[in-house]
Amino acid sequence: MVAHDTDALRARSADEWKHLFDSRGASSAWPNGSGVWSKREWVAPEVRDVDIVSTGEGRTALFRAERLAAELGVGELWVKQCGVSHTGSFKDLGMTVLVSVVRQALARGDLKARAVACASTGDTSASLAAYGAVAGLPVVVLLPRGLVSSAQLVQPLAHGAKVIALDTDFDGCMSVITELARRDLIYLANSMNPLRIEGQKTVAVEIAQQLGWEVPDWVILPSGNLGNAAALHAGFQLLETLGLTARLPRLCVAQAERANPMYRAVVAGKTTVTPVHAERTLASAIQIGNPVSAPRAMKALAAMNGVVEEATEDELADASAQADRAGLYTCPHTGVALAALRKLRARGVVGSRERCVVVSTAHGLKFTEFKLGYHEGTLADVRCRRANHAVELPPDVERVAAEIARGNG
User: Fold this and answer.
1) Residue 214 belongs to what domain range?
2) Cβ partners under 8 Å of residue 216, min gap 6
3) What is the pTM of this model?
4) Structural domain contains residue 165
5) What percent of the chain has pLDDT over 90?
6) Domains in the chain, number
7) Backbone torsions φ then ψ of 218, nearest 5 degrees
8) Residue 179 burial (CB < 10 Å; 0-12/13-18/19+)?
9) Model confidence over 294-325: pLDDT tens digits?
């Protein structure tokens, strides 16, 4: 756990913090181009500039989804585009902190490890491999064989990491990597490492900053290992504690129906999450049955008056396609969050005038197979109601003109 001296941070007033963060947003001086390190006092103030490993992460767009908001019947809908980053996922926010701290510890002789390593469903491995390459550190990643997209697999390969594909799921990979860490063979970079949470909590700060230093009514978050739920709570809590905002938003943790241990726990009235066997889901990055950050996420849920919702394969795919028709280009995990929002609004849990922010965790381009499968109608258990097909015609002007006249389907 990372603890911050909030009494020391109160030496600056809320208005002074706002002015400092806003002014850094207009600066290109190193390392202020990073949305994480421009808020370094709240993240890892002890890291020297020379040791910071950054790719300009953070500062991602808050997409105003007006058409989609109208279709879902909510007052405002914003999508925090965390996937528009160097490696295409929110993982970069936490990895910049972890790798920077590791680099400084190695330089000082405080840490000895053969490699920095992680188990991954795809995005964590891509991010660790990229930041390790920037820093010149050896990286090892364990992946569940056949369960990550081609785009996710090629990223750590391209960055020179040692990629080990295991005949198991993510939970099996996590068990192996944890034992390797226990033997001090590697330095563990998964989200159970609190350094990751420190970077990821800046999503909350950016959301508030982009909304004029106000918080939304709801934040809807696709969740697998549940570290991001704890991170968002940490960020929003610090904003409130230091007086930059007046309250916490409500939190919705959204899970795929086929990998929903937190949903099951909450529905059953439990305060702890019991591991489940995660079945194969289109939302592969959150196909996790034994989330390591579950205890922290349950605390976040309680503190933020939160709820947990699930989405079937058909619901997540349809929600993703609906968002794409409104100008977004969503990964399947963002589809889980949007489907959860749609269900909460239908039940009246989310009000018609409320401001909602959906956190998009990865770039849709990393999941081309998912997109093609939807529009080709080949996804199992998905009705593909919004599928769009290419029209093949000969190079005949009249035929093309007639097709255009028919309009869009």
Assistant:
1) 1-89+195-409
2) 76, 78, 207, 249, 354, 355, 356, 357
3) 0.95
4) no
5) 94
6) 1
7) -135, 145
8) exposed
9) 999 999 999 999 999 999 999 999 999 999 99
